[in-house]
Amino acid sequence: MLTNRRTVRIQFGDCDPHGIVFYPRYFEFFDACTEALFERVGLPREKLLRTYRIDGIPLVDVRTSFLRPSRYGDTVVIESSFTECGRSSFSVCHKLYNGKLLAVDGVEKRVWVVPSKHTPSRFKSQAIPQEIVERCCGFRGRQQASGKARNAKFRKAECKHDNGKAVEQANA
After folding, report:
1. Phi, psi (deg, nearest 5) at residue 133
2. 55-102 pLDDT per residue, tens
């Protein structure tokens, strides 16, 4: 499984008055990490928008566990990986480590969207191109995108931890 690692130094502006990271900042970190993950597979945002003529990859679901606080001056490492590719959506797991300890564990689900033909100011989901599925999720992702997984109303991919070790899990 492809994993991208990004190091972030916690800045004063990331923190609340108590000196710990204000929780919405983690979602900004994760958004930047998703973009970096696409860049890692050779698909920077500009290329996605221009080549595939999409409107974007909006976030439609997010689940996060805040396990330990991070503070001003800490240097954290965020590990991000694709965990699922469906017909028109995909999931990314983010694990934020402060030192060797897992501090934040999150999963985001995003949808591949294109402009609506009937209402240009709106967008609609569209099947993710095969090339993207293969680059991002490989065979494992294609396998999940077929059969029962494709027909499931809503699959939730979760990143769980077991005694400090990351374990990926998908629940139907």
Report:
1. -60, -45
2. 999 999 999 999 999 999 999 999 999 999 999 999 999 999 999 999
4-153, CATH topology level: Thiol Ester Dehydrase; Chain A (3.10.129)
In this structure, are residues 157 and 107 in contact, taking their beta carbons and an 8 Å threshold?
A: yes
Residue closest to 106 by CA, chosen among 133, 85, 79: 79
What value, to the nearest 5°, has the Cα angle with vertex 100 and ends 160 and 7?
A: 95
| CB count in 10 Å sphere of residue 13 | 8
At residue 28's C-alpha, the angle toward residues 16 and 128, to 5°, is 160
Q: How many CB atoms lie within 10 A of CB 2?
A: 13
Give the single-character DSSP code of 155.
-
Q: Does this model's pTM top 0.70?
A: yes
What are the residue ranges spanned by the domains of the chain? Answer: 4-153
